[in-house]
Amino acid sequence: MKYNAILFTDISDYFLPMRVHGAYNIAAHLREHGYTVKIIDHQAWLWENHGKELVNLVESMIGAETIFIGFSSTFSRYFGEPFYMKPRNIKPGLKKKDCFPYMLELISRVYLMHPHVKLLLGGQGLQTVTFYEQFKDELDCWIRGLGEDSILTFVRNVEQGIENPPIISDAASPIFDFHNQRNVFDIEDNILQHEVLPLAISRGCSFRCKFCTYPLIGRNSSEEYIRSEESIYSELMYNYENFSTSSYMITDDTFNETTYKVERVLRAVERTGVDMNFWAYTRIELLHKFPEQIELLGQMGMKASFFGLESLYEPSAKAIGKGLGRDKTLDTLQHVKDSWGDTSSLHGSFIIGLPYETRETADEWTKMLIEGETALDTISCNFLGMTSDYIIKSGHTTKTFFSEFDLNKEKYGYKETPDGKWENKHWTWEEADLYAKDVLKSFAERRPYFTWIKSAQSSMACMNLKVTNPELTWEDIHKPINNDDEANEFESMINNSRDIILDMYKEKVL
Ligand code: SF4
Predict the structure, then answer these.
(1) Is residue 134 a part of any domain in this protein?
(2) ipTM score
(3) Residue 247 forms beta bridges with which residues?
(4) The CATH number of the domain where 163 resides is what?
(5) Disulfide: which of 143, 355, 434, 480 matches 319 by Cβ 3.0-4.6 Å?
(6) Number of domains observed in the structure of the chain
(7) For residue 48, is it within any domain?
(8) Which of 202, 203, 209, 380 to mutate to test the pocket of ligand 1 (most atoms within 8 A of CB)?
(9) Which of 207, 219, 310, 404, when mutated, tests ligand 1's pocket best, judged by the most ligand atoms within 8 Å of its CB?
(10) What is the DSSP pairing of strand 415-416 with strand 422-423?
């Protein structure tokens, strides 16, 4: 079959294959407007292991009606060695010659032999700028931000012979009817039975943390940003009936922004009659202020939460707009753990180098994390990231949006160093980086069979073990690991499942 659009996507080099929203969302929107779209997921693995077949497949799908081939880049690797989503693993100076050879062949063939087919880049990831710069001659457009409105503008311009600008940016996609969005994943997307899927209930965030670079922050909680109960129910039901999906990664910036939103999702879940598992970004202040949310979340099947706590030193947390205070934060976390049970997965994310934080204040609370004096199961700890003034001015970045800290460093006590990093009265960038790494190392060393695989988003990704072992439950997968045998068994289950899932997908798509 020939397609109007062909989209490549993946989360490259992840420990278990997972789906991401972006390309599927665009595909769903185009399909709703009458276009045919083929998605090719797990692209890095396919290019590296089945490149020739992939080139032939894509060639067979190109016809006179083909409008574009798109490359989604937010979580994808197109150049060089596996980077496992870590910026520092990416070798500097990657060039066109470092991209997958068969992909290079495909792009050259399309550019030379199918000039009516446009080449499109989407997203903002670790290799997006490299892709944009290395394929500047071949690419027709880079779409940034929320892409539903932009993609329709793009294809309609092509159809009418109107030239598109080289970059289209849109933080909000205001024409798209998000409130009544239809199901994102489709039968023809080759979703495997029991796969975990991402789910967006809302867009944007009603908070405005000073280090945050997300678009659409500080928005109100109006209905245009939140899906209707019917829309949520339809998607859950469609995915369950067609893919047996009952585990979801909720992608909302702050899932529990209002209690009525949580209640709406609970009603939709209850209507399906299916036991579901959810993971979400959850704001601790709101659980403290509206404690009834804790029970409601448990009832809907929330098993794992990511709490952006940033610092347990009150003046630092307050300085960024997160000031619940240490005691209330820890009490609320314990309340959540007691309510959701032992196998729930509570993840705290922290930042070293915030205003007012000194080594002494950080020592005090990081010791509590390391020694297990909180209800958190896993943590992440990073230095404060800031974009240099030079990069902001030059525009040599994939970022479209900058944080309050990025834009007003000096106001918050930071000075830019000649190499584009930062320092303040208490830390240099490097010191904060080393400190954060030490915290993580000590945290893992204190826990004999600790695995980062059960940490943060990965705790939900582990549910993809159900693709190869459908009988497994959340409790089976998240029970504690107590000895070497159990640790080895878990690791080999992950490795086997990864290979089987990729092969199953290949059989369906190629
Ligand atoms: S850090 Fe999270 S809560 Fe704060 S503004 Fe950004 S998305 Fe919202």
Answers:
(1) yes
(2) 0.99
(3) 277
(4) 3.40.50.2300
(5) 355
(6) 1
(7) yes
(8) 209
(9) 207
(10) antiparallel
